[in-house]
User: Which sequence fits this backbone?
């Protein structure tokens, strides 16, 4: 049985959400690189979408959130590519990338990414790194393996922090057997609970992305977040880092100061930038403001 997207709202111009996603992907170069052997990494490959390859611009790597794919950055990649060579990953076990050895272990994921980045970029090339949610967890871990390569990490609503979180309703699992309207409605509900602050910002692209990515996700990023993966590794991170959070991030609000204090206890010069009106998926919901702030941070 295949997923039925017929109830997903179309774009204002009449195109389907998938047609829009594919049109943005078509402006990139899709590259698969080895993630290393199984157990030493495993017969798998990682998918990257690259904008501006061979442009000579500095490299910016984008790591998406849990149960996601490069599509988490769909409103950012083309704007950022005006200034950087943009490498948007599908993280191991998510999107179109093969799974790591252990889908519940952040180090298993990180070692795959470490191997892939070394295959993707020349060994002497340094890069910037932005990690959203689960991607922030992996960014912190990767920084301990190749600190000399990373110029700066931007944590975007990063997960895996041992900090207070307001209780919310549980997300519902999306199933192939659901009727099309139920599938779209359940995806919308999950997006409203976790990803986007204002319900009116939940559009067809977000709904299609949520269905497509969560139903094929193999890596169990939520387990890693609950275990406080980023807090565990942050004391070993020597790379400079900055934060960008949505004002109303569902994983943080109203406890943002607790995160700021956590980061500054380790790095007194840490800067936290909050985007007004943004939810957890701040790079999508408030894309224009986010792009401007990220470019300013990376100047």
Assistant:
């Amino acid at each position: 049985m295949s997923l039925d997207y017929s109830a997903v709202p179309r774009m204002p111009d009449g195109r389907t959400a998938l047609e829009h996603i594919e049109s943005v992907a078509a402006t990139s170069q899709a590259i698969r690189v080895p993630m290393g052997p199984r157990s030493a990494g495993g017969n798998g490959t990682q998918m990257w979408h690259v904008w501006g390859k061979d442009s000579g611009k500095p490299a910016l790597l984008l790591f998406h959130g849990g149960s996601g794919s490069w599509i988490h950055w769909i409103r950012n990649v083309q704007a950022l590519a005006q200034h950087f060579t943009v490498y948007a990953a599908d993280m191991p076990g998510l999107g179109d990338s093969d799974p790591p050895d252990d889908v519940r272990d952040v180090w298993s994921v990180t070692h795959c990414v470490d191997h892939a980045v070394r295959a993707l970029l020349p060994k002497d090339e340094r890069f910037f790194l932005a990690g959203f949610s689960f991607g922030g967890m992996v960014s912190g871990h990767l920084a301990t393996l190749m600190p000399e390569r990373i110029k700066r990490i931007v944590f975007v609503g990063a997960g895996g922090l041992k900090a207070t979180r307001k209780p919310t309703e549980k997300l519902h699992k999306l199933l192939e057997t659901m009727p099309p309207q139920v599938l779209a409605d359940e995806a919308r509900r999950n997006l409203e609970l976790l990803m986007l602050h204002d319900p009116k910002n939940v559009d067809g692209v977000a709904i299609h992305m949520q269905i497509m990515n969560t139903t094929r996700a193999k890596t169990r990023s939520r387990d890693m977040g609950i275990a406080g993966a980023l807090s565990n590794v942050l004391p070993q991170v020597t790379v400079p880092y900055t934060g960008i959070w949505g004002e109303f991030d569902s994983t943080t609000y109203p406890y943002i100061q607790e995160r700021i204090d956590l980061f500054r206890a380790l790095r007194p010069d840490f800067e936290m930038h909050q985007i007004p009106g943004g939810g957890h998926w701040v790079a999508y919901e408030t894309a224009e403001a986010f792009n401007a702030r990220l470019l300013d941070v990376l100047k």
